Amino acid sequence: MSARPLVLDLLPGSFAVSRLDPGAAVPGWADRPGSPLSSRTRTADELSVVCPADLVPEGVRAERGWRAFRVEGPLPFALTGVLASIAGPLADAGVNLFVVSTFDTDYVLVPGRLLDRAAAALEAEGHAVRRPAGS
């Protein structure tokens, strides 16, 4: 089963990707009930936290100013080419990305300053980009 044209919903707000030490406890600021996206991933080398940028305290190592697209799902596990159909056009347009995958779908974060370029590249690929009202 191959990826077809996708629907990507632009989430409201700006996000940050933070890096903490691998043994650090998940900080209380990392989650806000009702947030459109919050993710914690621990490896032997780090604890990465993705959350709304306004939650990350000053002094925490973070890349801020990301915007996030949610791929409409759920996506079957047998579906192939989903990220390739997104990453390829973004790379061709010079847009870097950060991806968070869940059981049901994928979230693709792009730098906020490149949001319009990213949306145009995705739409040119045949994907539908839905923006929240007022954005």
From TrEMBL:
Gene3D superfamilies, A to Z: VC0802-like
InterPro entries documented for this protein: A9CJY8-like_N, ACT-like_dom_sf, CASTOR_ACT_dom, CASTOR_mTORC1, UCP008459
Pfam families membership: A9CJY8-like_N (PF21631), ACT_7 (PF13840)
Occurrences of domain CASTOR ACT (ranges): 62-123
Ranges for domain A9CJY8-like N-terminal: 13-58
Protein name: Uncharacterized protein
